[in-house]
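note to self: dont lose this again. the chain is below, predicted strucutre after it. 411 aa total, dont forget to put it in the shared folder this time
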Amino acid sequence: MDERSFYVPIETKYVLKKLYKNNFSAYLVGGCIRDFLLNKNPKDFDIATSALPNDIKKIFYKTVSIGIKHGTIIVIVNKKNIEITTFRIDGNYKNFRKPDKVFFIDRLNQDLARRDFTINAMAYDFKNKKIIDLYDGKNDIKKKIIRCVGNANERFKEDALRMLRSLRFAMNLNFDIEKKTYRALKNNIELIKFISYERIRDEFLKLISSRKLDKLYLICDCEILKIISKDLYDYISKNLDYIKKNLSNLKDKKYIFLLIVLLKDLDKKKIIEILKLFKIDTKSIRLIKNIIEFINIKLAVKDNYYELKKIIFKLGFENLFILLDIQKDIFIDDFIYMKTISKIKSIIKNKIKNECVFLKDMKLNGDDLKKINIKDKNIGFILNKLLDLCHKDNSFNDRCFMLNYVKNNFI
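---
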């Protein structure tokens, strides 16, 4: 691939040229070079430079200090965020995750030496239109392997999250992990205990969001998942092909969707335990739990839509559509149910949305019941009974009719 054809957005060109004009060296680094060599459109164009953070802030008008002590500044050009980081070397690593301090330097080669994998340790010299590849990353891309920069044991001991990152890159790129790197990973899996579950969760979700899951077995084979969650390890290792199929079919890779499809066949107690372990917020746990209750049930369309309304009452309209969208991917081979899902969506939009589904839709409320001397302790029960009758027949949702019903049956 011609390195001169490397595409650089106009905003990024502006930043690079301005750094050059101020006598600083600057290079594109990381994922954008990897993506270019993989014939993918790069998403982020990050810059490494000899300019210190304060220099960057002086040169550019609009900046945001997101990690100034580690040398990272965001420069905003035409409403685009461009991340710039000063060349650095890391001090001693603390708790197998982050360096206790960083030292700013003026040379690119030392900065590249601290990076995780060879495929991420390349830079692009925009001025001379060439890729700088000190660790044979281009060749590793050709060979489709993930390999640590330098000594793999040292890289994983510096930052234990790199072990999950290696698995994620192997998964997302459908690459193999180089033998020495994989051996070092297996030898250091206990270090994952030092990483916060929020970080583990984020890497794990990126890992299972891959379009291709041919390498999913690696997370069980190296046994790092056993350290993270024994329940999840047992479940995935025993149902590998089934889980691969379900996750691969899932078109929308939102993390909520991924967790629903991944965990849907576990018992409720284990689902909650895993979600809490991964520090999922309470609202999302409730949503996941409620949708999983119906995820394997094929919904039916009956004349009065009673069952459908009961499910909407429990999930809400938005969450029912989430359920149906996920089911569309899970039951993709069931042509008849695909038609049913389309029909249900149409019925909801054109009919049920205009009917009484929730307590707030009823034309009678608790205050009306108090006025006819219904005791407070009975109000909730009666309202739910009335709502159930409205679900069965929407014409029941009439204030006078419901008042007469209450008077005849509860007073």
